[in-house]
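Lab notebook, page 48
Experiment: co-folding of the full assembly
Goal: obtain a model of how the components sit together before planning crosslinking
Operator: M.T.
Materials (sequences as entered):
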Amino acid sequence: MYRETLVIALREIRRNVMRSFLTILGIIIGVSAVITMVTIGSGTTAKVTADISKLGSNLLTIRPGQMRGPGGASAGAEPFKYEDVKAIASEISMLEAVAPSSSATAVAVYGNENWSTTVMGTNNEYFKARDWNIPNGRQFADGELRSGKAVCIVGETVRRELFGGQDPVGSTIRIQKISCQVIGVLEAKGHSSFGSDQDDVVLMPLQTFQRRIAGSQDINRIYVSVEEDISTETAERDITLLLRERRRISPNEEENFSVMDMKDVAATLTGVTQVLTALLSAIAAVSLLVGGIGIMNIMLVSVTERTREIGIRLAIGALEQEVLTQFLVEAVVLSSFGGIFGIILAVIASFGLTRVLGVPYIMDPGIILIAFLFSAAVGVIFGYLPARKAARLNPIDALRYE
Amino acid sequence: MNTDTPGQAGKGKRPPLIELRGVTKVYGTGQATVHALRGLDLFVEDGDFVAAMGPSGSGKSTCMNIVGCLDTPTEGGYLFRGVEVGRLSRDEQARLRRHYIGFVFQGFNLLGRTTALENVELPLLYRRTPVAERHNLAREALEAVGLTGFEKHTPAELSGGQQQRVAIARAIVTKPALILADEPTGNLDSALSREIMDLLTTFNRNLGITIVMVTHEADMAAYARRIVRFTDGLVEPDGKDGRKGGEP
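Observation: model returned without errors.
Model output:
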């Protein structure tokens, strides 16, 4: 009996292929939109998490001024001095690396090529703090750091723009008025979650930068990486206390510097992504509702069209329950088809979209199952009313219906 | 509900197949009230072949619907083999139809775009007959109405006479106790009508299936053993109810 009911349902759907397809279009769109949104959402979350960890694990960034969101202005506050960096390194334990940094925008020239980039003065601690390798070339030598020699390490973007296919190590580039020998190329890191190109950078010894480019002893940023297993919260608190003391901030005053924990940033960004995903999925789910109403509509039409058939079945001895089941099964089969097509469409669409957006393709089987069950449930909910209408028909009237 | 195969001719001791006592049927309320039946008595014994005749509006169709358990009387009693149908639920009435009654309609009422075989199988489907048996019984029924070879044809591919024969096959496939035929030849010419009537007569004689038929045509009614005439919601006494009529 169940097999026959299913066969009848499939036959009815096949008889009106075009109508059936249009009926389930709403379900197809709803299911595929929800799955695609969730997939892109979890891909984005994964990418953000990966990006943040690429910035360096357990990384704290210290800047002068109060932070107002990622990349917020820090104007008006006194910059750090190299002594602050030394104090942090010596007085706070459990730190893996403490790197000073000072940067400016400058044009780098090689031959006929020129490229506007960020020039940053730092030391070898920076590579440790940011967990950044130099696959081609070397770090700064101690002598170069001490004497402020004109040497530099270029990021992948700078290498590409200035040198194209050439190996830049040993060549000399010009930055403002100084000629600078390239001693290494940084490993490519790609775009950060804030959208900036991390590879668009030229690194030189801090001394060289301060003396020949900036003309001051200022340090704009201090990167601190905390040892594994040590909580960044502890380090953050200790650094804050130390810097408050050094910058003579009275207890009731607000800090004129900020310590930013990359983990917090990651959590914030992930949270934002998840909220956005949920919101978009909810909007997509509305189309499932609309799709359900479409199914109800067409099932009501179908019941009217098949009034005589229902009359015959009832006269022959079909129970109310059996007629109800028949129409309910038909609605569920319809909506399940919508679910299946929606899932197929979603797999294709989210695969393509994650490629385009450059986020990892993470398909959660759970969401596929939920989407499918939900589409079947839509069939039950919206198919019930028409099915009940069919089952409650008076056989005499139904048989007379033209 | 017992499911033993009915259809054998009555032994005389069991209650009559159909027993209508003082049946009235009123449609509508107030000004629009229609008295379709006005206290009708009718008895039909097992194995009988009854033709119901009468003008339109005389209550034939209403009476057929009540006899077919598709409708219930407003007042009075309808006993189908001793069972008070009016007291049965909608589903119980459906089960009664499923197991004891076959219908043949004027408009054939076959399922469209469904093969002859599947149409004939339909009542067996609701009886939960196993697939193999269903096919066999349906084939036999089609053979009995002379439609072997037309199993895969849909109603649209069959002539009117063939369609009505499929409908008869559908009615007899369950070997019911009663076949209700509502103007079975109304849409057919006289040659085809005779074929249909011959078939019904055969099943009445050979299988002992009781047949109650509504017709307008006297020559079709002539096939029946007994003719009841309807006028204004009553039947004219034909003497054959007399021996039971007086009993309580």
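Interpretation: Residues 262-305 of chain A form the longest helix (44 residues).
Next step: discuss with group before ordering constructs.
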